[in-house]
Amino acid sequence: MRSEVLRLYKTIHSWTGIVSGMLLFVCFYAGALTVFAEPIGRWATPPARGAATIAGADELIAATLAARPDAAKDFSLYLAADGRPARLAWRKSREDAVRWMAYFSEAGELRVERSHPSSIAAVVDAVHRTAGLPVGVEIGENITGVLAGLYFVALVSGLILVLPSLVRDVLALRLSANLKRMWLDAHNLVGVASLPFHLVIALTAFVFGLHDPIYAALDRMVYDGELPKIMRSTSPFAGVRRDEASAATKPVAELIAAVAATSAGFTPKGLHYRDMHTRGATVRVFGEDPRFLSRGGGFAALRGATAEVVNVDYLPEAQSSWTKIVAAFFALHFASYGGDIVRWTYLVLGLAGAFLFYSGNLLWIESRRRTARRHGEGVMQTRSTRLMAAATVGVCLGCVCGLSVAIASVKWLHGHVDDIEVTSRAIYHAVAALALAFAFVRGAARAGAELLGVAAVATAAIPAASAAALVAPGLGPFASADPSGLCVDIVAAGAALGFAALARAARRRSGAGPSDSVWSAVPASGTGAEGAPTESRATAPEPR
């Protein structure tokens, strides 16, 4: 391939990566955690003790509606699972932020109380969808859609760059004293080995992030403004007419049995009721079927008064051809298929993707110094290079510290704040902003090692909160009722050790590496000032 063509693709690859790399790191790091959103959510949820099982669900509904008839309009019944009893959840209206919950205590008494879900999984998901920016989810999704487009361009241009040396270099990881070569080998190895995963994520993230503008363009150019009407006609309950005449709603067991007759492998997790005890009552039985690709689960739509199944388009085993295509899009992005093996694989690939963007920025920054040396020039670390290095460290490690602190604080916040989700988001953004400011003040070399130390401590605080619940129950934190909570603690403890090891390596590199590097905390000899041409250790040739 002609050298000028390769230079063009190298320029495209470098700048698309530089422009989007830091925010994509945030998307991938948070996205890797969202794969295990359910275990994280259960870890952060106080254990609930109660008596109702699926057999007593009808009694629970009747008792709750007798005490709170306003809930009959729209409520969800969550079936007993994961050590939690059956419970009802509702809001007075869609605009009302206050959630209510009802369940039977162990003594069989109805408990109606304000719900305080930890929602930490929703916070991690919001960071993933907004790239950690302090904006609304809708705006954040549009931004991540654009980032996904740049990400796709960086992938294609990077692949073209490594093609000439694909066999010789791309699967080589040369562990030597030449750190830049080792980072470049690791960057290329991770990029090529996980290319199919990255292509899928780039394409699906582009569509998810820009679905509103895409739909608006289709409505204008293809459907002549009829798209909203078409979408309403495909609603699962499009064939059910509203009828407020009084009619009993079928028992829970009968509704579930009707769905089982259509798909025996479907596992129901709950039922969503609307207009209960009317002829027009509708029920959505939602759950999962891991045998099929789906949009994070599935549901069947029924008439509440007759238990007639009226729509199975979203039931994994019976979904339509178009729904299967859409479901595949969701499943491939969210890893909602294949069970734990696929989720662990996505976690590893997601973290590897975060490494890909972090290492890409480090390589670009270091290439300034190598280019100056190759041309026989004195190495000058410019202000822009130092700011770029500080921003890379601050944004990436700020995301790691922010998420760890937000998760670790949840068990301490219960019972002390009304809206844990809002508080957790504020904690994340405050920690991330402080980390970024700290990186600019301390410089990339010192801040890199120190923020990794903070990340180790913050991540260790996650299992420490669970340990505090066992050692000193009166302090406030609670032990998780679900066994998956212990897995969260174990993984967090392992991650904390990993961050501590990285902090030690970064500290050693900042003190013993070439002093003309932006990653050195030692002033270049002969000048004593940052950014000046360097000599001695700085100008000694690095191993190649």
Topology:
Layout lengths: L2 H32 L2 H7 L13 H11 L6 E5 L8 E4 L9 E5 L5 E5 L5 H11 L6 H26 L3 H4 L9 H15 L1 H15 L1 H11 L5 H7 L18 H11 L4 E8 L7 E7 L9 E6 L5 E3 L9 H14 L4 H36 L8 H31 L6 H23 L1 H28 L12 H29 L32
Antiparallel strand pairs: 1-2, 1-5, 2-3, 3-4, 5-6, 6-7, 7-8
Helix pairs in contact: 1-4, 1-5, 1-13, 1-14, 2-4, 2-17, 5-8, 7-13, 8-12, 13-14, 14-15, 14-16, 15-16, 16-17
Structure explained in plain terms:
InterPro entries: PepSY-ass_TM (IPR005625). The chain crosses the membrane at residues 12-37, 143-167, 188-211, 344-365, 386-414, 426-444, 451-471, 483-503. With 544 residues, the chain is of the alpha+beta class. It folds into three domains: 1-45 and 115-232 and 320-363, no CATH class; 52-114; 380-517, no CATH class. The protein is 57% helix and 8% strand. Strands 4-3-2-1-5-6-7-8 form an eight-stranded antiparallel sheet, with helices on one face. α1 (3-34) runs parallel beside α14 (383-413), α14 (383-413) runs parallel beside α16 (444-471) and α15 (420-442) runs antiparallel to α16 (444-471). The two termini are 25 Å apart. The model is unreliable at 526-544 (pLDDT under 50).
